[in-house]
Design brief:
CATH superfamily of the largest domain: NPCBM/NEW2 domain
CATH class of the largest domain: Mainly Beta
Radius of gyration: 42 Å
Largest sheet: 8 strands, antiparallel
Strand content: 35-45%
Number of strands: 13
Oligomer: single chain
Structural class: mainly beta
CATH architecture of the largest domain: Sandwich
Number of helices: 2
Distance between the termini: 119 Å
Length: about 220
């Protein structure tokens, strides 16, 4: 090797050295750069078709019925719906005439109702009357027989406003009917329930979640 190298002219030696530096640099420099950068790998190719927009995940908010959801506490024993109406349940109001109903959470057609009133009946009508003070706009309730009533029972539910009947519904066991009655300017609300099947030993005519709605500035305080 020494004799061969010594026999080369200086031009040949220079050319060989240049070639050697080029070859070594093409191998060593990429290895050094890869080690310096932590051995990072190129990103995988995108699977999104050309021209397509990237997809994102989103959660659709649940839809809430504002007419039936009580939202914020208000003064004088009432609560507020999201649309600003004051709500007062009949179970929180003292009756002025008639029978004292049971008050509490009762099931009608398998659905529990936390603010309900019920009349226990053994074949005769029952009635309860409330003073609205002309301060409410709407009376809402779900009528039916409590789930522990006789299975062959049925009843007529009647709503009177200042002595005038405005609603009458016959409801059998295992059914539920929603009522919404305008009461603007009304002084007295009277609720009457009458058994329709004399063979039913006991029924519980229920006004489930019976409530009054109105302007918070006009709703009278509880007594």
């Amino acid at each position: 090797m020494g004799k061969w190298w010594g026999a080369r002219s200086w031009e040949q030696k220079l050319a060989l050295m240049t070639l050697l530096v080029t070859v070594v640099g093409s191998v060593v420099i990429p290895i050094y750069l890869e080690q310096r950068d932590g051995g990072s790998q190129p990103a995988p190719p995108s699977t999104t078709p050309a021209g397509a927009l990237p997809t994102t995940s989103a959660t659709t908010p649940p839809v809430t019925d504002s007419s039936s959801v009580v939202d914020t506490a208000a003064g004088d024993g009432a609560t507020l719906t999201p649309d600003g109406k004051a709500v007062r349940y009949l179970s929180d109001i003292e009756r002025v005439e008639g029978e004292y109903p049971e008050e509490g959470s009762f099931k009608v057609n398998g659905v529990p109702h936390a603010h309900s009133i019920a009349h226990t009946q053994y074949g005769s009508s029952t009635a309860t009357e409330y003073d609205l003070g002309r301060g409410f706009e709407t009376f809402e309730t779900t009528i039916g027989l409590r789930d522990d009533s006789s299975a062959n029972g049925s009843a007529k539910f009647e709503v009177f406003l200042d002595g005038r009947i405005v609603t009458a519904k016959n409801v059998a066991f295992g059914r539920a009917v929603d009522l919404r009655v305008p009461v603007a300017g009304v002084l007295r609300l009277r609720l009457v329930a009458t058994p329709l099947n004399p063979e039913s030993p006991t029924i519980y005519s229920t006004w489930a979640d019976a409530r009054l709605l109105g302007d918070p500035s006009k709703v009278p305080p509880t007594t």
